[in-house]
Amino acid sequence: MSEAAERFAQFKLVLLGESAVGKSSIVHRFVKNTFDNMRESTIGAAFLTQSVHLAESNTTVKFEIWDTAGQERYKSLAPMYYRNANAALCVYDITSRSSFSKAQDWIKELKKQAPEGIVICLVGNKVDLKDEREVDEQEVAEYVEELNQEQSSAGAPAGKVILAECSAKSGDGVLETFNVIARALPVEDAVGGARNRQLRNKRSSGVDLSRGRQQQQSQAASSCC
Amino acid sequence: MPNPSSLFPDSSNSSEVQDILFGRSSNRSLGGNLHDLSEAQISKLIHLKFDNNPITLIRQLSSDLTSKERDLILLRKEKFAREQLLLKLLSEYGNLSSLEIDQKLNTLKIDNNADNVLHDLIESAMDEHLNPESNPSINNRMSIKPTESYRLRSKSDQLRSPPERTSQVTSPIEVLSNTSSNSTTHNHSHNNNSNNNNNNNRSSSWLGNWFNHNDGSNENLPGTQGRPQSKSFSLQIGPFGSTSSLSSSNTGNGVNSGGGNGAESSKVPVELDSIKVRRPYEDRTPLSAGVDKFGFFNDMPKEAQKSNELLSDEEEGEEEEEEEDDDYDANTSGISESKPFISTLVETNDLEANGTYLSTSKAKNTVTSLDTLKQLSRMHDEKSKQYEDEWETFFKSLQRDYYYSSNKNKVKIENIPEKDQNNTFNSLYSSANEIFGLKGLNLIKLEKIINKQQPHHHVGHVPLSSDINSTSYFKKLHKLIQKMGIPPKYRSQLWFELSGSKNLKVPGEFDRLYNLSISSVNDPLIESNINQVNLDLHRTMPSNIYFNDVVNSQPGPNYYRLQKILYAFVVYKPKIGYCQGMNKIISNLLLGGGATAASNNEEDEKWSVNLTEEDIFWIFVGFIDELLPTYSKDFKDYNFFDNKSLLYIGIDQKILSDVYFPRFLPNLRKHFKTLNIQIEYITLNWWVSIFTENCLPIEIWIKFFDNFLVSLNVEILFFSISLSLFKNFEKLLLSISNADDIYLIMKNLNQNNSTKSNLKYSELMQLSKSFEKKIDGQEIESLRMMYG
């Protein structure tokens, strides 16, 4: 059994969303698997990294996470962070309608301003507070569907908005969300990119990348090895 | 001296073993060590003492070993925690860099020869003159082997004094207790060894323990009243009540004490207890343990917190210290007794794996390094004293000149009590006029007046101090602040004046604004700002007890102060409103500027006026209005916290990274370029939060804030501080070839212990000063035009 060499890819992910919807909490759940009721508010933007391993493609995806401040007045700084981002997590709080419309605004802005092909994920946080839910799941699903239909009718490539819900407090759905994003990211391109050090090392040690890629594709097609 | 052989059931046969055990054998360097015995001797021992059942012996030995191990680990952990605390104190109060401390510590010579060390310890213990009046509060608890129906009672009163305990604790080995028996109540004395001044038997002590051990069950006897007469003190190590005491030679005077159930173990390393830890910033409300002087919860492990607690408790006084120890001991021995063998072992391993305590060799060094630490703290105290004296002198000469100059100009000032030399600052301050003024600019005016006056000196006129010392007051103030910041006792009042708050403050206005903020909910602008404030209140310094009283699970006092200040500010400057970052700045001001800062002695108490939230509000307003950089565009000035300013702050980051970085830090710039690091990702956070957010630790920030107040060009200072933070870590950063790691380091400066401990005010200020000189305000202006 020949197995494809493990591959690495690194992506920049930016979190956007209204103040206090739980952006930092989601990141900390993802990166450190901790939750703190008393998290300090983020000023400017915080930075963390975390990797996920995609077993099916034997790929490790490393996220550079830029966790931006939610306050409206820092909005003008956001382009600095999503400028060259590969993925964006637009977070809203399911117990706050206004945060959902703010997340919609972010999606609009990203569609206009962000680099083409950015993976956008709309995440509803705080599902542990389902009794206080203000944002209807169905409604969000319809919104996203509509958005994605617009997208495809416009003939734009891919770029579908991913929909997710999670709770940073309980941990539900957090890892799953990042896994879904990792799968949606153009791992193939990034693997070939010059930014990946490990990969360059591999190349110099004689691993033929393109073959690895083909192998990977055939694997994906037949899903057997 | 009672015959030690009485310990043995068959004393006629035991003299040889006894000799061996008590180290009297001449052919062994360390008599009494079990491993030194011949096989025949060991089997004899087993026969005699353990009815031919070696299992008891082995069990006893291994349980002794484990308890030893456990005690050692606890000791090490505690030492480590104390040392850390001391280091922290030194760096916080002393501006001593960790490098300086390390260098000092490295000069220590440690004798690695155990024999020499032990010898010295014993010698010094022998020389101790113990105070017989000291409280013999600790009873020895002995365990008896019931099968032999020996009734043993400890008779050694414990007279402890810190230095001795110091020496004992560091010794891994103890000397057999030397007790004299009160024959009317006891059949036997135990552990008696009149030869304990012999170095060779030092190591025999813990072996001696197992003579008195059974396999776990103790019988405790009620004790008779004992009076401390002998100059002996005991050290008990191990959970089974094994006692060993180190005595001076004249133990003949009978000592009898209650055997009883006094659980004790003097394993607390006491040399540190004698260092009183002061917390000058302590609030009126007592701080709970594990909270630093600014009220931040330490991230210490529980064990360390406990020792910290002990340490602070001992501030209460000597007598109480004794009690504290007892409590603590009772506690731990209780725990250890109930702890089965295996679990102790497991715990041991866990601790080992954690590596949170000092390595064995380091633990050895602790005693000596602590002496050095003491020395360092003394040095530091002298240094700060010297520094305060400098301020004192400064104020005195300022006062004199101010007095004469205002008299000359017929400026009416309230009488300055010249006689009251000790009250220089107060009298200076109490005058109706502002001596310092905003940014200290009044000092420059004062100098002008003085200089004008000088040619008109008449004979007999008292020479102005400026005649002697021609340095200008403003420069002098600037220099003093650069050196170590404003001394805490002057800080609150100087903040108040230098920020311009004294002029800004309108009596009653603060309360009016606050009341407005609660009532005027129909103003959407204010309302939305209040909402923003509300979102952040509980997210501001949640790890500080003054903001988040976790003990009572309610907001702390500063939470409400912050709320009041921010609410009032939002009404005061609705156009600026609330901006994240303000919460951090105000919190730091609240912590540093008096609301919780109290000085550590009455003398200082007199000077320092605790700033109320009203004062802090006006200081904050002054800071925002008068001191922070402003940005002008199209003939309009934008406040630093104005929404529009973000753009210009961003431009300043461009200038920093594209102009000043290549100019002042070319290597770093090159390195960052290859790693594709964008400096503004790091520095923008610093700027918008005025270096509070994940940047400067509060104790350093406060001193930089002192500098902001007298800086004539704050933006230059912003640039130079940014550069010096990079310069400070230049070597480290150059050695890292991963962009992520560099971001992680530079974006968490005051979060990581390693970077935090490498931030020193004096070093940063030095660097910042050197950059400040090379940065030209005019150039910044033209660069802004270019990049804008």
TrEMBL record, chain A:
Give the Gene Ontology MF terms in alphabetical order.
GTP binding; GTPase activity
Q: Where is the composition biased (Low complexity)?
A: 214-225
Q: Which InterPro entries match?
A: P-loop_NTPase, Small_GTP-bd, Small_GTPase
Q: Where is this region: Disordered?
A: 195-225
UniProt entry keywords in alphabetical sequence: Nucleotide-binding
One Pfam entry for this protein is Ras
Q: Supply the name of the protein.
A: Vacuolar protein sorting-associated protein 21
Species this protein is from: [Candida] railenensis
From TrEMBL, chain B:
Task: Please provide, alphabetically and separated by semicolons, the GO molecular function terms listed in this UniProt record.
Answer: GTPase activator activity; small GTPase binding
Q: Where is this region: Disordered?
A: 129-269, 305-336
| SUPFAM superfamilies recorded | Ypt/Rab-GAP domain of gyp1p
Residue ranges, compositional bias (Acidic residues): 311-329
- One Pfam family, please name it: RabGAP-TBC
Show the ranges annotated as biased composition (Low complexity): 177-205, 241-254
Please state every residue range assigned to the domain named Rab-GAP TBC: 485-712
Gene Ontology, cellular component aspect: site of polarized growth
Give the superkingdom in one word. Eukaryota
The UniProt entry, under InterPro entries, shows:
Rab-GAP-TBC_dom, Rab-GAP_TBC_sf, Rab_GAP_TBC_domain
Compositionally biased region (Polar residues): 132-142, 211-235
Compositional bias annotation for Basic and acidic residues: 148-158
Q: What is this protein called?
A: Rab-GAP TBC domain-containing protein
The scientific name of the source species is [Candida] railenensis
Highest classification ranks of the organism = Eukaryota, Fungi, Dikarya, Ascomycota, Saccharomycotina
